[in-house]
Specification:
Layout: E1 2-6, H1 18-36, H2 43-51, H3 71-77, H4 85-106, H5 108-129, H6 141-154, E2 159-164, E3 168-173, H7 174-191, H8 199-216, H9 226-238
Antiparallel strand pairs: 1-2, 2-3
Helix pairs in contact: 1-4, 4-5, 4-6, 5-6, 5-8, 6-7, 6-8, 7-8
């Protein structure tokens, strides 16, 4: 388990990553708001159930309750719901460290579109893996997985500080850190580890993110640009 905590990129943006920051704030506010809903009543469960993405509601497989929100809308809304502080904190840490660089490369509007499309694509891959499941899907991890793939393709040699095993800070190139994270997702799918985690959602986010960063990147934005990463590292070392 590795968690990125800093990528060495100073706060010297041509334009601040307003979309990344806005998404973080939105996810945190929604999570805090859901905490305020009376957990002892059925209102909280009904609210989460209506906004979460449930595969069985596509094609009406074994529908047990009425769905007040169209399933097409839940392809996005599920990604703004989280099950615990650890769940939301983990996803938002990835977004905080990696999202600004992807947003800088794509631009604000394209990054916002990229984020939402990764969430939608990840949910659809999850549906294909378990089309009759009545288990609600929540969490931004599908969109985050898309950001991981995009960052890896944009800055494979950028050095990232990570917490290995949740406690040991080490600095490694993104190609090793994020490449290892992506490999873990495929291994978990293969080994069927921890059924409570929607591993196919992560896989879907990675695949969709890798495709979209190629399609959406503006002219002049290079992929796998290790020279630029090394130049930035040298500039920071010289300070």
């Amino acid at each position: 388990m590795v968690i990125p905590i800093y990528d060495g990129n100073p706060f010297a943006f041509k334009s601040p990553p307003y979309v990344s920051w806005g998404l973080i704030v939105a996810n945190l506010l929604i999570f805090v708001w859901l905490l305020s809903v009376d957990a002892s009543s059925n209102s909280k469960s009904a609210l989460i159930l209506s906004l979460a993405f449930t595969p069985a509601w596509i094609g009406h497989h074994n529908v047990l309750v009425d769905q007040p929100v169209p399933w097409e809308i839940t392809l996005v809304t599920y990604s703004f719901l989280h099950a615990s502080w650890l769940h939301v904190f983990g996803n938002m840490t990835f977004l905080w460290v990696l999202g600004d660089d992807v947003e800088t490369a794509l631009g604000h509007a394209r990054f916002f579109l990229f984020y939402l499309m990764c969430a939608v694509g990840a949910a659809l891959v999850h549906f294909m893996s378990a089309p009759s499941s009545n288990v609600p899907l929540v969490g931004a991890s599908g969109a985050i997985a898309g950001i991981v793939a995009a960052y890896l393709m944009l800055h494979p040699c950028r050095k990232i500080w990570v917490l290995a095993l949740m406690r040991i800070p080490i600095k490694l190139a993104a190609q090793w850190v994020l490449g290892f994270w992506i490999l873990l997702q495929f291994l978990n799918v293969t080994l069927a580890a921890n059924y409570e985690v929607a591993w196919w959602t992560h896989i879907g986010g990675v695949v969709v993110g890798a495709i979209l960063v190629v399609v959406l990147r503006p002219p002049g934005v290079k992929l796998f640009d290790c020279d630029a990463d090394r130049m930035l590292e040298n500039e920071q070392s010289a300070r």
